[in-house]
Amino acid sequence: MHRKLLFSLLGAALLLVGCNHNPKSIADLKNATEADSMMYYFGEMQAANYWMDAETDTLLRTKEAREAFIRGFRDAMELDEDDSAYNKGLQLGIRLALRLREFNRRYDIKLSEKVLAASLEAHLESDTCVNIAEAQQGFYNIKDRYEFATAGKELTSAKKSLEIESRDKGFTEINDTLYAKDVTPRGSQPAFKFGDRLAVEITVSTVDGKEITTRQFPDSITLGEGRVPKVVQLGILSMSDGQTRQFMTTPRTLFGRRFANYSLLYNEPVIFTIKASLAHPPK
C-alpha cells in the first residue's frame, strides 16, 4: 500500500476547515485502483477520528495543530526500518515521552528521560529476568506519594472555587464538597433512606451548562449498595419521592482520578442533577 498516498489523503482531509468536505484533488481516488481506494478511505477514517478528538480538545482544530499532527504522522510513516524490535522500541519511546510530559505538568516535577533510558538499557543488557512485582511496587509507592500531595493541594483550591461558585448560583451547603439547590420542592414526603429501591435520572454538566456525557450512572438503584459514588448517594439521601434536585461538587469528588478524562480542571465545579422516585411506591 502506498504510504505517500496516505500522507496526502490524511493531510488534505485535516487541513480543510470543515469536516464534511472532500479534497477535490484526490476525490477521484475513491474510484481508482482497489489498493488506492482502500488507502483513500483509510486516510479519511483517520481524519474522522482526529475531528472527533477535536470535539473535546478545541486546540486540535487550529491549522497549526493539524499541520503538527501531519508532520508527526509523516515522520512515523516514512521510517524504512524493517526491524520489529526497533519499531517496538520506537513506539514505546513515543508513548512514554508523552506520558512523562503529562506527568511533569500534572505533578509539577521534572522526570529524567535519561534515568529511564539508562534503567531500561541496564536491565535489557542483563540476561536476568526482571521482578515485575517488585518494580511495580517501587514505582507506584512513589507515584502515590506524588498523587496524594498533589491531590491535597488541588482539593483545597477546588473547595474554594466550589464555595464561591455555589454562592453565586444560589446553592446551599451540605458539606464542604457538596452544595444543593431544589429544582422541585421536597413536599411532605419523608427523605429517602438506605434500602429504598429507586428509579433515578442523573445528568452532569459544567456550571455554564455544558453537558458532560457519562455512562457511569444506572437508572435504578438500591440505596446503600454502592452503585453510585458516595457524593451522589449523599445527595439522594437529602431528597424525597418524586423530587428533582441539583448538586454542585468538585470533579474529583464525583469522578475520582478519572475527572481529567472529561476534560475538566480540578478546580472547575460540576453540577449533577438528580430526579428520583421510589421504584415501588407504597399503596
Structure explained in plain terms:
The chain has helices at 3-15, 34-56, 63-77, 84-107, 113-125, 132-169, 230-237, 251-255; strands at residues 172-175, 178-182, 197-206, 211-212, 220-222, 244-249, 270-278. By secondary structure, it is α+β, with helices and mostly antiparallel strands. Strands 1, 2, 3, 4, 5, 6 and 7 form a seven-stranded antiparallel β-sheet that branches. The longest helix has 38 residues, at 132-169. 18% of the residues are buried. The model is unreliable at 16-24 (pLDDT under 50).
Distance between the termini: 69 Å
Overall SS class: alpha+beta
Order of helices and strands: HHHHHHEEEEEHEHE
What's the pLDDT, averaged over the residues? 83
Largest sheet: 7 strands, antiparallel
The number of helical elements comes to 8
List how many beta strands DSSP finds. Answer: 7
Question: Which blocks of ≥5 consecutive residues have pLDDT under 50?
Answer: 16-24
Integer-rounded radius of gyration: 26 Å
Assess the beta-strand content as a share of residues: 5-15%
